[in-house]
Amino acid sequence: MNVEARLKELGIILTDMPLPLANYVSAKKTGNLVFTAGQVCSLDGKVIKGKLGKEIDIATGKAAAKICVINCLAAVKQLIGTLNNVKEIIAVHGLINSVPEFTGQAEVMNGASDFLVEVFGEHGRHTRTAVGVASLPFDFSASVYIVVELF
């Protein structure tokens, strides 16, 4: 499967990751696995901030999770050169900035999961965590990190 071509078909352009704001790296490879740092919902000047269940609805939350995972893919690509070297998505972990009463974290994370399956097909199916948190840095609505296996 040509993942780069599939992203192009979907109109997704992966940009270079900015330098991290603290003492960490955007992605790290060990053996045939790549782990990303938590990526936030900021892409091409569009930023999604606020709490699910308060300022942010489910549809916007799903869009936020998708943006986060697009940034995860950009971090992987920047590290390994091409996403065509990704064998499969192993795990996706999402932190959702939400009010205590909000219980739709899994539905929000479908924005990330559905996109990965759309891009990678069956190789995009993964294990997943969707957790509500009291806050995220700079009030981002979501943060996602992934683990991928390489050929």
Task: Look at the helices and sheets and give the structural class.
Answer: alpha+beta
Q: Predict the CATH topology of the domain at 55-142.
A: 60s Ribosomal Protein L30, Chain: A
Specify the CATH architecture of the domain at 55-142: 2-Layer Sandwich
Computed over alpha carbons, the radius of gyration is 14 Å
CATH class of the domain at 55-142: Alpha Beta
Biggest β-sheet strands, sense, barrel: 6 strands, mixed
Average per-residue pLDDT, rounded, comes to 97
Number of helices: 3
Helix content: 25-40%
> What would you call the shape?
globular
Name of the CATH superfamily of the domain at 55-142: RutC-like
Low-confidence parts: none
End-to-end separation in angstroms reads 12 Å
